[in-house]
Design a protein that fits this description.
By secondary structure, this protein is mainly beta. It has a domain at 464-561: Cytochrome Bc1 Complex, Chain D, domain 2. Helix 4 crosses helix 8. It is globular, with a radius of gyration of 24 Å. The two termini are 43 Å apart.
C-alpha cells in the first residue's frame, strides 16, 4: 500500500474542519506559522506551508547560520512574524528570521536542558512575553527587548514550591519541554532526577502569566480523596516521586483541553515501595486547561518497572473510521505500542485488551498481572530479542558475550520484569517512541514516527553504597564491567559521536573532572553516585589500560543467586545496575536500529517503513541502511508531501511522505538538537536545522542553527 500524495495537499486547508457536528468553530490556519514549540499548540510537528515542495526541495541551500555556543543543547526555535527566538550561548537571542542578524541577547537566563521557549501576548498586543526555564525557576523576558520582566511582585516563579515537599530538598525540577499557553495561563510539566527513590512529585501546574499565581495543579500521584489514590500505598504522595509530564503537552485550543503524557514513578526499575497500578503514571491525561479538572485518562503501563515513560507528545489529528470523522489523540510508548482515542470522550478508536504478562520474582515486589495491548494497530518496534538474532556487525567474541548475557537473563518477551539475573527488555527504555520523533498530517489521519530499537537488560542489585574495602574486594575491573562497559564497551571503544570512546581519557581531562562527571553525570551519561570518591582514580587508571587488558571469556552458566530477604521497610534497597546493552559496533539487535514509519490511522495499518539514517563508523566500512543511533527531536511534516528530519549521522534529509524515498540531504556541522522548524518571511519559506548537540570533531565546525531556503541566501 502506498499513500496517495493528493491526500496531503488536501491537508493544506486554511481552515480546520470540525470532526463532529457539535465540535468547535473553524479557526484560521494555525499551522502556517512556527509560533509554538513543535510548530503549534497541538504539537503536530506539521506545517501547512508549501513553498518548499517535492519539485524544488533539491534546490535547498544554506541561507544563513547562527552559532549556538559551545554547550550542547536540544532547543527548537520559535518565529513570531519576522523574528526568530533561539536558545544560544547560555541565554536567549532574537534574530532577524530572514538574515540571522542578532537584534538582542539576554544572557544567563535559560537551563542547558531547556528544549525551547514559550511566547505569550496580551489580547491587545501591548504586552509580549517570552517564558523561559532556568532551573528551578520560570523567568519572563520582554519579547521586544530581551529585558527581564517580573510576575507581579515576583522576580521569577520558584517551581520547587507548592509540591508538598521541603523546597530545599528538591534538586532538579525544571520543565525541559516548554509549557503550553492557554489564555493567560502557562501550563507546565516537570523533569526531575526521577531515576531515584526520593524524586519530587510530578504535579502538572498552571500559573498566571502576569501575576505568577498558581491557578491550578493536577496531582499525578493522587492525594487522599482524589481518583486513583487507591492505586498506591497510603500517603504515597508524601514520599514517592516522578510520574511527571516531562515531554511536550498538546493543547486543543478550540475545546480548551490539554493532553499530557506522563512517565514512570520513581524508582524506575523497582516498585516495592509503591505497590499498585500507580495512577496517573505512564498515562495519557485529558485535562480542562482552565481548571485542571481530569476529563479522562488511559494508563498504558501499570506499575512501571521498565522506565517505559510515555516520551512522545500526544498527537492531535482527525481520522475517518466507518464513514465517521473522529477528532483523535494518539499515545505512542517506548514499548512499541500505539493507541488512538476519541479526543473528547477517551473511547479507543481501535480496540484494546488486557493480557497476562510475566511476573516478578523479586521479594517485596508485585507487578501487574496484566497490561494493555492494542488489537488492530501493529507494533512499531521489535518487542523480543534472542541470542540467535544479534547484530551482524559485532565482533565474534562480542557476539559470544552478548549471547551469554541473554542466556543468563530472564527473557520472556515484552514486560519481562527486572530481576537479579537481569532481564531482556525490547525495545528497551531508550527505544520505541521517543521525544520529538512523531509528526502528523492533522486533517488526513496520517502519523509518521522515527522509531528506536535499543534492547536493555535491567539487573537489580543492592543499592547500598560501596565502602572503599568493598570496592577493592569487588575489583575495579568488575566495577568497570558493571558500570561503564554497557555503554562504552568492554574495551572502551564507545559509539562516537553519540557515545564517546574512552581512549586517551587521561589526556582530555583531569582526575577532578573525571570524578565530577562520574558523580554528577553528563549528557546521556547518568550519575554513578555509589562509587567511593577515594576509588575513582583507580577506575580512571583502569580505563587507561583497557586496550591492553584481556577480556574475560563469556560464561554460559546461569549464576546461582542468593535472593536477598526484604520486607516493606527495605523497599528501597535495590537499584538497577547495568541496563544499557550495546555492541561496540552499533546496537545489539539486528539493524535497522532506527526506522521511519508511516501509519494510516484511517485504516489502522503501517504503510511503509525505511531505515532512518546511518552510523558514520559503519558507513566508513561501506555499510549503510542501519539506521542512526538514538535519534530524538527529529521529525517535521509539511502539506507539500515532505518529511524533514535530522539524525545523529549529522545529516538533514527530506523524505517523500508517499513512499519514504529520500529526496534531498545535506551535512550538518554537529549532531541535531531540536525539532526541525519552518516559516515564511516576505513570502519566502525557510527550513531550520538545529545542529546543537554532540562533540565538535572537525576544525571550523560549531554548534549552530542552520537555515536553508531554495536558492540559498537572498540576493
Amino acid at each position: 500500500m502506498q499513500i496517495r500524495r493528493v491526500r496531503f495537499y488536501a491537508a493544506a486547508l486554511v481552515f480546520l474542519l470540525s470532526g463532529c457536528a457539535d465540535g468547535p468553530e473553524p479557526v484560521a490556519d494555525k499551522w502556517a506559522t512556527w509560533q509554538s514549540y513543535a510548530g503549534s499548540a497541538d504539537t503536530s510537528q506539521y506545517s501547512s506551508l508549501t513553498g518548499i515542495n517535492v519539485e524544488n526541495v533539491t534546490g535547498l541551500e544554506v541561507a544563513w547560520t547562527f552559532p549556538s555556543g559551545e554547550a550542547a543543547h536540544r532547543s527548537t526555535p520559535i518565529v513570531i512574524d519576522d523574528v526568530m527566538f533561539v536558545v544560544a550561548n547560555g541565554g536567549v537571542a532574537a534574530l532577524n528570521a530572514a538574515t540571522g542578524e542578532q537584534k538582542w541577547f539576554s544572557a544567563d537566563c535559560v537551563s542547558p536542558n531547556a528544549r525551547g521557549l514559550v511566547y505569550w501576548q496580551s489580547d491587545d498586543g501591548s504586552q509580549q512575553r517570552l517564558l523561559v526555564i532556568r532551573d528551578p525557576e520560570l523567568l519572563a523576558l520582554d519579547a521586544r527587548t530581551g529585558k527581564r520582566l517580573a510576575f507581579g511582585e515576583r522576580e521569577s516563579i520558584d517551581l520547587r514550591l507548592n509540591l508538598g515537599r521541603d523546597p530545599e530538598t528538591i534538586g532538579r525540577i525544571a520543565s525541559m519541554s516548554p509549557g503550553r499557553v492557554h489564555e493567560n495561563l502557562i501550563i507546565l510539566g516537570s523533569a526531575m532526577g526521577d531515576d531515584a527513590y526520593d524524586a519530587a512529585p510530578g504535579d502538572i501546574r498552571a500559573y498566571d502569566v502576569l501575576t505568577g499565581e498558581m491557578v491550578w495543579t493536577f496531582h499525578t500521584i493522587p492525594h487522599p480523596g482524589e481518583a486513583g489514590y487507591e492505586t498506591w500505598p497510603p500517603d504515597a504522595y508524601k514520599t514517592i516521586g516522578a510520574a511527571n509530564a516531562w515531554t511536550a503537552m498538546s493543547l486543543d485550543e478550540e475545546r480548551g483541553i490539554i493532553y499530557a503524557n506522563t512517565g514512570a514513578p520513581s524508582y524506575h526499575f523497582h516498585g516495592g515501595n509503591r505497590l499498585g497500578d500507580n495512577l496517573f503514571s505512564n498515562s495519557l491525561l485529558a485535562l480542562n486547561a482552565s481548571t485542571g479538572e481530569r476529563l479522562w485518562h488511559f494508563q498504558a503501563v501499570h506499575h512501571d518497572v521498565w522506565d517505559y515513560d510515555i516520551a512522545m507528545a500526544p498527537k492531535l489529528l482527525t481520522v475517518e473510521r466507518g464513514g465517521q470523522r473522529i477528532d483523535a489523540v494518539t499515545l505512542a510508548g517506548k514499548h512499541g505500542f500505539l493507541f488512538v482515542f476519541d479526543r473528547v470522550t477517551g473511547e479507543p478508536v481501535f480496540p484494546i485488551e488486557e493480557r497476562a504478562v510475566p511476573q516478578t520474582d523479586v521479594p517485596g515486589e508485585q507487578t501487574s498481572p496484566t497490561q494493555p495491548y492494542p488489537l488492530v494497530l501493529p507494533p512499531f518496534a521489535n518487542q523480543t530479542l534472542s541470542e540467535d538474532n544479534l547484530s551482524p556487525y559485532a565482533d565474534p567474541e562480542e557476539v559470544a558475550s552478548l549471547a551469554s548475557r541473554i542466556r543468563q537473563a530472564r527473557n520472556e518477551g515484552l514486560f519481562t520484569p527486572p530481576s537479579f539475573r537481569g532481564s531482556v527488555n525490547a525495545p528497551g527504555s531508550r527505544g520505541g517512541a521517543q521525544h520529538g520523533n512523531g509528526a502528523v498530517i492533522p486533517d488526513a489521519g496520517l502519523l509518521f514516527m522515527a522509531v528506536i530499537e535499543s534492547p536493555t537488560i535491567p539487573k537489580l542489585e543492592l543499592r547500598n553504597d560501596l565502602t572503599a574495602e568493598q570496592f577493592l574486594a569487588a575489583g575495579v575491573a568488575a566495577t568497570y564491567t558493571a558500570t561503564c562497559a554497557p555503554c562504552h564497551g568492554a574495551r572502551g571503544k564507545g559509539q562516537p559521536p553519540l557515545i564517546p570512546g574512552l581512549a586517551g581519557l587521561s589526556d582530555r581531562m583531569s582526575g577532578t573532572e573525571f570524578a565530577s562527571i562520574v558523580k554528577q553525570g553528563r549528557g546521556r551519561m547518568p550519575a554513578v553516585q555509589n562509587l567511593p570518591e577515594t576509588q575513582l582514580s583507580a577506575l580512571m587508571d583502569h580505563i587507561g589500560q583497557l586496550d591492553r587488558l584481556a577480556v574475560a571469556e563469556p560464561s554460559d552458566e546461569v549464576p546461582e543467586l542468593e535472593t536477598p530477604a526484604m520486607d516493606v521497610s527495605d523497599a528501597q534497597r535495590y537499584r538497577s545496575g547495568y541496563h544499557h546493552f550495546f555492541s561496540d559496533n552499533g546496537l545489539v539487535g539486528p539493524p535497522p536500529w532506527s526506522k521511519l514509519i508511516a501509519y494510516d490511522l484511517n485504516e489502522g495499518v503501517i504503510v511503509w517503513q525505511k531505515p532512518y539514517g546511518d552510523v558514520p563508523a559503519l558507513v566508513k566500512r561501506g555499510i549503510t541502511g542501519t539506521g542512526s543511533l538514538f535519534p530524538t527531536n527529529s521529525l517535521m511534516a509539511t502539506a507539500s508531501g515532505l518529511l524533514f528530519s535530522a539524525t545523529n549521522d549529522r545529516k538533514i534529509r527530506a523524505w517523500d511522505q508517499a513512499s519514504g524515498a529520500v529526496l534531498w540531504s545535506a551535512d550538518l556541522p554537529a549532531d541535531p538538537g531540536g525539532i526541525p522548524a519552518t516559516y515564511t518571511v516576505d513570502g519566502r519559506q525557510y527550513l531550520v536545522a538545529t545542529a546543537t548537540r554532540g562533540e565538535i570533531t572537525s576544525s571550523g565546525d560549531q554548534h549552530a542553527y542552520v537555515v536553508y531556503a531554495v536558492g540559498g541566501a537572498a540576493h
